[in-house]
Specification:
Layout: E1 2-8, E2 16-18, H1 20-36, H2 43-65, E3 71-78, E4 80-82, E5 87-95, E6 101-107, E7 118-124, E8 129-136, E9 142-146, E10 149-154, E11 160-164, E12 170-175, H3 178-190, H4 193-196, E13 209-215, H5 227-233, E14 237-242, E15 248-254, E16 262-263, E17 266-267, H6 268-285, E18 289-295, E19 299-306, H7 311-321, H8 331-341, E20 347-351, H9 357-373, E21 375-381, H10 384-390, H11 397-422, E22 426-430, H12 435-448
Parallel strand pairs: 4-12, 15-18, 15-20, 20-21, 21-22
Antiparallel strand pairs: 1-3, 2-11, 3-5, 5-8, 6-7, 6-10, 9-12, 10-11, 13-14, 16-17, 18-19
């Protein structure tokens, strides 16, 4: 879906500018006049060039301001921009006049992008239509306001420039990445795991949903042979099972200050939000129920796990409105909310971050209690900048100290993951860039093993 803004250039504009070409020629004329004092033979040349410049300037002005350039511009931008993805924006320009123009279009981009003096240049002939395309990559959620698309037009003479005030403001909303959600949906549903990174999981045992009895084919599990059906048909028949459906899966997003750490311009919370949207879509496609919880010192979004057609849109809108809070997480509050809101054993996928063993030790008793009633998966983040520091070559004594501390920090992260596994809690330690992929793999693994 796109939102189009259409504005017609006014026939008259009082804003005129002299171009760099004009001042360059004028500077050369001044130099000729200066040389004409010791060399009088140059005076007629300087005067002739000055008259020529004046004539061309007046002609250029007349072409721009009397013959009325007729331009139209139409901006097309997605009404819903995807967080952290390149989003295309189009400008359709049409010249309805009979004058060829050089255009410099200055787009007033949203302030969140921090891109100033963004120019698009083109040459458009009479009756021509052109589409100019550029891409923006938003790194924060919220409303993005595009300002005016201001156009500066010159003729082929290029001495006078006319500013055409194009009023084409519009607003677009940046939502969690719908583009990534669709990409991971295709990867998971097409079973092309080795090409895309989503792992094929070997089924261990059987799930509880019986589907049908079918003829035995080479490669089928011989433990699934139905001997009674085989005796009746005088041919080997096997029971076919499918993944158990309608299981409750909740994505739990920590929005405390531990999730405000930025990596490649995106906060850990936004990485978690993108992963939650993509994972929720996979959960619904697998016929399970997807729900959402967010927390910090207070509870945020609370969506009961459902499987109806509007659930994904509810999750998208809830994630769009979530904001980080500069406080510590209250895991006791989370435990009470889960006990009150989540009925029955469910899969809880908790997106959080622990920067020290002390932080984990404070939360561990509550996490263990959650794991007794539900299947808990704790997803936390590896600090990629510290890993890059640990991989740098050593040249000085200070580098040895930095390497030692960096490796100690990385070891402590692995130790935290191992500690949670010792208490029966599923733990995923991942780079922020691999969060969505590793989380989907973990969900598919648990589902294939029948642990949910």
């Amino acid at each position: 879906m796109t939102v189009a803004c259409f504005t017609r250039v006014p026939y008259f504009s009082h804003l005129m500018y002299l171009t760099n070409r004009f001042f360059q020629v004028l500077g050369a004329i001044v130099a000729l006049f200066a040389l004409a004092y010791p060399l009088p033979v140059l005076m007629p040349v300087a005067q002739t060039v000055l008259i020529l410049l004046s004539t061309l300037t007046l002609t250029d002005w007349a072409l721009l301001f009397i013959r009325k350039p007729r331009l139209t511009i139409r901006r097309e931008a997605p009404a819903m921009l995807s967080l952290s993805d390149p989003n295309p924006v189009h400008l359709d320009v049409e010249n309805k006049g009979n004058l060829a123009l050089n255009l410099s279009i200055e787009e007033e981009l949203p302030f969140q992008l921090q891109m100033r003096h963004f120019l698009l240049k083109t040459v458009i002939t009479p009756g021509d239509q052109q589409r100019l395309t550029y891409q923006i990559t938003p790194l924060s959620r919220g409303d993005y306001a595009f300002g005016h698309a201001r156009t500066f037009a010159t003729t082929q003479i290029g001495l006078v420039e006319r500013r055409l005030a194009l009023s084409a403001p519009q607003t677009a909303s940046v939502y969690p990445s719908v583009i990534q959600m669709k990409q991971y949906e295709l990867r998971a549903m097409r079973h092309i795991a080795h090409e895309t990174g989503i792992k094929k999981m070997r089924r261990i045992g059987h799930s509880y949903e019986f589907e049908q009895i079918k003829n035995y084919n080479a490669g089928d599990d011989y433990r699934s042979i139905n001997w009674k059906a085989s005796g009746r048909r005088a041919a080997l028949m096997v029971n076919q099972y499918e993944d158990e459906r309608s299981q409750q899966v909740y994505c739990v997003v920590d929005k405390s200050r531990a999730m405000r750490m930025p990596f490649e311009g995106l906060t850990l919370m936004d990485y978690a939000i993108n992963a939650t949207l993509a994972l929720s879509n996979i959960i619904l496609k697998k016929n399970d129920k997807a729900g959402l919880l967010s927390f910090s010192d207070v509870m945020g979004a609370t969506l009961k796990a459902e499987r109806d057609s509007g659930q994904l849109h509810k999750i998208l809108e809830s994630l769009y409105r979530e904001k980080e809070r500069p406080v510590e997480s209250n895991y006791e509050l989370l435990y009470e909310a889960v006990r009150r809101l989540v009925s029955g054993r469910s899969l809880l996928i908790l997106f959080t971050n622990f920067e020290s063993s002390y932080a984990l030790d404070r939360a561990l008793p509550t996490l263990r209690r959650l794991n007794r009633s539900h299947l808990l998966v704790v997803v936390f983040f590896e600090n990629t900048e510290i890993r890059a520091l640990a991989a740098e070559p050593v040249h000085r004594m200070a580098d040895i100290y930095q390497h030692t501390m960096a490796r100690r920090f990385l070891y402590e992260k692995r130790e935290m993951a191992q500690k949670m596994r010792q208490f029966g809690i599923q733990a995923v330690l991942t780079r922020p860039q691999d969060l969505t992929l590793n989380t989907i793999n973990k969900y598919l693994e648990l589902k294939s093993r029948g642990l949910i």
